[in-house]
Amino acid sequence: MITVSVPGKVILMGDHAVVHGKPGLIAAINKRLSVEVTEGKGSHSEYILHILGIVRNHFRFSKLPDLRITIHSDIPVGYHLGSSAAVAVATIGATMYFLKKIWNPSIINQLAYEADKYIHKTPSGVDNTAVTFGGFLWYRKELEFLRSFWQLPLKLPPALNHFSLIDTGRPKENTGEMVAFVKSQKNLQKFLDANEIQTKRVAVALKEGDQNLLIDAIQKGEKTLEGIGVVSKKVIPIIRNIEKSGGAAKILGGGGRTDGVGYLLCYSHHPPVSSIPILLGEEGVRLENTL
């Protein structure tokens, strides 16, 4: 049995902007998904079969042996924490090692990007890259064939360890629908440029341990997301209340237009009682056992 685990992720700033060539600042979080691969027949979803097909084609197998794949996850589906990318990364990593005894995160990431197209059609590549390499990631998609990323030498200062997630309900719209909506917006470039400024400010705040800068940058970055229409009227009052208490909050990933937006990322010393504390900068894909 081969077991591989991967973290979930949050985009600290750069949601939607990364699809349009702007930078995104992403952190792996302490919620993980694991995949176990053993010999034997299994009943697999279309997505898992698609992932296995990518592995088969890459290594030029005429046919894969019977594999039983079991998934255990603390990463909820549809909440913009990278669940589909985590499934792809963990399944590819475990299957590669099971079949070829190869452990190569770069190849895992490359194949996971192709797999994630099954779910998100035109993904930026940020999700699979973030959960593969972990830590804090600065990511930019220059062209379809040119995606650059840097693992930032950051460790979250203890004084800034006040992040949590707030559940606003699963969005009615999927990420692909939200991306298409954003592309149709007028004055989009103005909001993307403003978002890039705040993405850089968040990175500086984390590096310098500057809480005031961090809160201000998250608040202003969230306003750019509201400007492009990806934050529903149901959720905006929740964000304003957190701001009034001295904190900041923003949507994650695609957001939502008509109801919930999934999780909000909250930075606050006094978060709502129902919020879920998280740690940022966790380890990426990990080979857990090779029994």
CATH-assigned fold name of the largest domain:
Ribosomal Protein S5, domain 2
Secondary structure category: alpha+beta
Please write the string of helix (H) and strand (E) elements: EEHEHHHEEEHHHHEEEE
> Count the helices. How many?
8
- Which CATH C-level class of the largest domain is it? Alpha Beta
The level of helicity is: 25-40%
CATH architecture of the largest domain: 2-Layer Sandwich
The global form is globular
Q: In oligomeric terms, what are we looking at?
A: single chain
Poorly predicted runs of 5 or more residues: none
Tell me the β content: 15-25%
Task: List how many beta strands DSSP finds.
Answer: 10
Could you describe the 3D structure shown?
By secondary structure, the protein is an alpha+beta fold. The chain folds into two domains: 2-153 and 280-290, Ribosomal Protein S5, domain 2 (2-Layer Sandwich), CATH 3.30.230; 158-277, GHMP kinase, C-terminal domain (Alpha-Beta Plaits, 2-Layer Sandwich). 38% of the residues lie in helices and 24% in strands. The chain contains eight helices and ten strands. Strands 1, 2, 3, 4, 5 and 10 form a six-stranded antiparallel β-sheet that branches. Strands 7-8-6-9 form a four-stranded antiparallel β-sheet. α2 (83-100) packs across α3 (105-120). The N and C termini lie close together (5 Å). The mean pLDDT is 94.
